[in-house]
Amino acid sequence: MNIRFIFAALVSASSAVAGFEADTRAAYPAPIPASQAPRYIPNFPWLGPGQADQEVIYYPQNPATVNSYNMATMLCLVNRLRMSHGLQPVVYHSSLLSLAMRHALFQSRYKVITHADSSGEIGDRLTALGIDWAVLFLENVGGGANSEDAIMDAWTRSPGHLANILNPNIRFMGVQVANGFWVQDFAVPRDSRYAPTPSTVDACPTANNLYIYA
């Protein structure tokens, strides 16, 4: 789970449950095994072995208060980075926006950073929403950033997150944030003809010219 970069200064090196209470008292995010999460997080859903990350990062309190972001700015940040590496721009898709919002709210509700919820991993979550996509799904998650610039700066400093953003195959993106819990989802349509041609894409639109595919 490629998320520790955001919390490197806050999370102790040990992920043992024994360190959980001390980290919680200090109001710092604490890594705990996903299999143990229901013991420490009220009403947290049980995640089966095929669904859960090795651990979740639990916040005693919300990491930030931000609940919205500038969609045009985020798209521009992603596409400028991709195009600087000779890659095609991505566009927003309504299904991925829904996917990201559902997961951002899940993380906010339980105050955790994770790639899984009770529906499963990202592919399972797409299926639960009735979305039929190809086999490539990528996701970045994080917490604590108060703007799209800040979360993108954090993600691009992490090799794993940066690799997701710069994947040459992705065509669609969805981003959402809830109480400082961020989700950035990428996917490829099953039929490549469904993806917009680069010449028709406004890689860095204004807020008034932002287009969301459906």
State the order of secondary-structure elements, H for helix, E for strand. HEHEHEHEHEHHEEE
Could you give the distance between the termini? Answer: 29 Å
The CATH superfamily of one domain turns out to be CAP
**How many DSSP E strands?**
8
Helix content: 25-40%
CATH architecture of one domain: 3-Layer(aba) Sandwich
Q: Give the helix tally.
A: 7
Radius of gyration, in angstroms, nearest whole number: 17 Å
Task: Please state roughly what percent of the residues sit in beta strands, choosing from under 5%, 5-15%, 15-25%, 25-35%, 35-45% or over 45%.
Answer: 15-25%
User: Which residues form runs of ≥5 with pLDDT under 50?
Assistant: 1-26
Keywords: Signal
Protein name: SCP domain-containing protein
InterPro entries: CAP_dom, CAP_sf
What does this structure look like?
The strands form 2 sheets. The chain has a 5-stranded mixed beta sheet with strand order 5-7-6-3-8, sandwiched between helices. It is α/β, with parallel strands linked by helices and 214 residues long. The model is unreliable at 1-26 (pLDDT under 50). It has a domain at 67-194: CAP (Pathogenesis-related Protein p14a), CATH 3.40.33.10. The protein has helices at residues 20-25, 37-40, 71-84, 94-110, 122-128, 148-156, 159-165; strands at 30-33, 55-58, 91-93, 112-113, 137-143, 172-178, 181-187, 212-213. Helices cover 30% and strands 17% of the residues. Keywords: Signal. Residues 77-185 form the SCP domain. This is SCP domain-containing protein.
